[in-house]
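Structure (tokenized):
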């Protein structure tokens, strides 16, 4: 957003130079830099007076100009601009000066006539893209003065970086309000006087809103018998100084009020509106419309339209149409000032790929209470510049007025957050400076009604931030010592995350970081059991929801790598997922998750090894290794198909569901254009954390030898090895230190629908050498439990 300082100073008294103002504004969170910097080039350009213009004797399109250039005397300059005329004050570039594009100006003969300098256009000066003619200066310009002094007075400004939450800063009045609060000086809004005639506006036009949820407010005025022509020099120069091309007095007035108030407006040729009617409705699927830029656009119901009685005439909040634009022949105007739903405008802008000055403001949140002020301001300005008669009254459809919130701010809480002493008087001064209405003041609390032009102020912490901005972030002292209470859980989380990162990197996986904002189709509420959190004002449809799972981003990473011919892809991520919870303070719960995906081979082919495709059991092994490294003891990995994984597994920790994994469902992979087999898992780290031992004790190794026994059990074919393993551990006693499954066998002589599971069991005592008889007792208990629970028996051979 470009701010012209001459323009700004109409609304607030700030005499400081541009660099100082930029620094002060930056410190209050609106990052700014001066638009122009003094240079040798600008200082070398002189302000001159065109005394006489005569035709060039040897060229029809050239003129010979006598230009008074101060101390440099009168110079003869050949000029080809169509707008050059005697009496004009202009910038003059003398021989020996180099233009910003590298061209050096010298004394030359043009068609036999000597030219001793140049009268440049704005583009040749590097000020704008305008090249239709020379730059003509205001009457106030001083002949012979350095051009830089003129620029500093009339063209200097600030380039302000506006964050998405601060639409109020996208105007001269908005930035002036910041300076007024910062310097504790009054804000001077323009006085508006509209001279109405007797005929009522209701007789001139009709207004209907069919979807008030998308257009909560729409207002209009009618002006008749206007005269279209050029804008005055001061307006053209102000618009040019902020990068806008002057067009005519009506269009320029609309742009001027937009940049002054921050509220977008639109002017229609009233006589081109069928039945002088305005209707606001959604577009129909397949409906087409040609916008002002000459492009025919196909629409759908995501687009909000402004229509007359027969046809669309504008895309609401984005761009008008060719069929209703103001031309040189326009006589009667209908002026629109509205408030549109930000989400509707953002969705339409993204769908069309069309971003305008209007859409940038509407999609961030315009001011619903600023509608009439902006409408009356442009009406008065057009009446001043183009004449005309204003019909009495305003068409204003506002069925459900938007109520600004009431927020309380506590003085003591503000001091705690900021870490400095702040008085209630200072808090009140800051809030009044940003035009909050103080409703009540109590011992420790101030309750205010926030202005509708500040949609970012929703909670107490937002008001505390405002106090911080104007108190001065740079004034908060930095402590010599930084103290922070030790958080055992946080430390453990970091330690666990670091260990797991090293583990998965050792498996050959790469860590990724993805956006927590996703498209709704990647939330999978049925599969995850989590209701997604929808953003109120998303930047785009692809960033409209908070993620409920990490897997879609990882699958997108697989897709991109495969398209780049990287066939072996292994990725993992730690990140937070979110689920809707109206009872929570923020309206959502969040959990730390871990997810991983893999496809291709476990390791590449070399001269000594063959490629081995990654399989289901590789991934199951990764999961078990991960849980062991975390210190989780009571866990199980059970075969269960899910919406996301077929075949799949469910990971339970201490009987609580902690995650899922397995082979990704082909239907899911098809959404990403993947035909390869992809394995994955996702684990809730918060669940695992609840069952990690808080204290770790060192256990010295035993001085006595271990006793090992191999047992081969015959079980039903559908029994999961994990279930039998759990039984062996539970019944083996404290001396059973290790249970290892090392063989699974089917076939002769094992009966059909049966399989053989062979385990190595290790028994160890720290106090003595175990006898065979003691181990036999443990084995007998194990065999009885296996037979009782799983109908398992020992294999004979």
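Design, position by position:
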């Amino acid at each position: 957003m470009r701010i012209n300082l001459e323009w700004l100073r109409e609304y607030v008294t700030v005499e400081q130079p541009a660099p100082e103002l930029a620094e002060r504004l930056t410190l209050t969170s609106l990052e700014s830099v001066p638009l122009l910097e003094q240079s040798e080039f600008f200082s070398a350009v002189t302000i001159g007076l065109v005394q006489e213009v005569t035709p060039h004797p040897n060229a029809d399109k050239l003129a010979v100009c006598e230009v008074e250039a101060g101390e440099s005397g009168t110079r003869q300059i050949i000029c080809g601009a169509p707008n050059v005329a005697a009496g004009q004050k202009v910038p003059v570039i003398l021989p020996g000066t180099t233009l910003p594009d590298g061209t050096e100006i010298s004394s030359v003969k043009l068609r036999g006539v000597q030219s001793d300098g140049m009268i440049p256009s704005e583009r040749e000066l590097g000020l704008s893209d305008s090249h239709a003619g020379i730059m003509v200066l205001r009457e106030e310009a001083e002949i012979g003065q350095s051009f830089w002094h003129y620029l500093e007075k009339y063209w200097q400004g600030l380039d302000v970086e506006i964050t998405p939450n601060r639409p109020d800063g996208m105007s001269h009045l908005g930035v002036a309000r910041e300076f007024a609060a910062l310097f504790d000086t009054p804000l001077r809004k323009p006085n508006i006087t509209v001279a109405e005639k007797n005929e009522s506006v209701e007789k001139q036009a009709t207004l209907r809103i069919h979807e008030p949820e998308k257009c909560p407010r729409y207002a209009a005025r009618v002006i008749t018998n206007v005269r279209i022509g050029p804008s005055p020099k001061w307006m053209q120069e102000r618009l040019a100084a902020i990068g806008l091309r002057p067009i005519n007095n009506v269009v320029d007035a609309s742009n001027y009020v937009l940049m002054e108030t921050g509220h977008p407006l639109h002017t229609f040729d009233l006589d081109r509106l069928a039945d002088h009617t305005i209707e606001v409705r959604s577009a129909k699927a397949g409906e087409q419309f040609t916008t002002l830029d000459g492009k025919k656009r196909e629409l759908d119901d995501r687009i909000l339209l402004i229509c007359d009685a027969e046809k669309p005439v504008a895309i609401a909040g984005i761009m008008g149409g060719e069929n209703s634009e103001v031309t040189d022949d326009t006589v009667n105007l209908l002026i629109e000032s509205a408030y549109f739903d930000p989400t509707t405008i953002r969705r339409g802008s993204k769908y069309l790929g069309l971003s305008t000055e209007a859409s940038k403001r509407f999609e961030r949140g315009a001011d619903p209470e600023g509608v009439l002020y902006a409408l009356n301001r442009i009406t008065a300005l057009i009446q001043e510049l183009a004449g005309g008669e204003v019909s009495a009254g305003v068409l204003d459809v506002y069925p459900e007025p938007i109520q600004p919130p009431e927020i309380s701010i506590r003085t003591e809480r503000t001091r705690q957050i900021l870490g400095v002493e702040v008085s209630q008087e200072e808090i009140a001064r800051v809030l009044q400076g940003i035009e909050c209405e103080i409703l009540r003041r109590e011992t420790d609390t101030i309750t205010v009604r926030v202005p509708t032009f500040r949609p970012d102020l929703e909670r107490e912490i937002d008001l505390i931030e405002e106090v911080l901005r104007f108190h001065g972030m740079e004034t908060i002292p930095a402590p010599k010592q930084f103290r922070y209470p030790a958080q055992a859980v946080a430390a453990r989380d970091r330690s666990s995350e670091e260990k797991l990162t090293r583990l998965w990197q050792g498996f050959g996986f790469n860590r990724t970081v993805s956006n927590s904002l996703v498209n709704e189709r990647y939330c999978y509420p049925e599969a995850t059991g989590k209701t997604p959190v929808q953003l109120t004002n998303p930047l785009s449809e692809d960033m409209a929801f908070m993620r409920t799972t990490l897997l879609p981003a990882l699958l997108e990473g697989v897709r991109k790598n495969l398209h780049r011919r990287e066939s072996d892809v292994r990725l993992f991520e730690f990140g937070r997922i979110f689920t809707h919870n109206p009872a929570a303070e923020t309206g959502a719960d969040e959990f730390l998750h871990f997810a991983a995906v893999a496809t291709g081979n476990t390791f590449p082919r070399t001269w000594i090894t063959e490629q081995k495709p990654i399989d289901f059991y590789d991934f199951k092994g990764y999961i078990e290794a991960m849980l062991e490294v975390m210190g989780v003891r009571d866990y199980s990995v059970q075969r269960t198909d899910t919406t996301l994984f077929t075949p799949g597994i469910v990971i339970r920790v201490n009987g609580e569901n902690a995650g899922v994994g397995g082979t990704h469902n082909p239907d899911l992979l098809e959404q990403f254009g993947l035909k390869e087999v992809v394995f994955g898992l996702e684990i809730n780290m918060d669940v695992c954390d609840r069952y990690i031992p808080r204290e770790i004790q060192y256990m010295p190794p035993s001085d006595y030898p271990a006793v090992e026994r191999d047992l081969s059990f015959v079980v039903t074919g559908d029994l999961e090895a994990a279930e039998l393993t759990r039984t062996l551990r539970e019944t083996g006693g404290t001396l059973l230190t290790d249970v290892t499954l090392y063989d699974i066998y089917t076939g002769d002589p094992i009966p059909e629908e049966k399989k053989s599971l062979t385990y190595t069991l290790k028994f160890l005592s720290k106090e003595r050498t175990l006898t065979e008889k003691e181990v036999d007792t443990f084995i007998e208990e194990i065999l009885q439990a296996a037979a009782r629970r799983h109908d398992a028996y020992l294999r004979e051979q």
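Reviewer-requested clarification: Confidence is low (pLDDT under 50) at residues 484-493. The CA atoms of residues 224 and 777 lie 107 Å apart.
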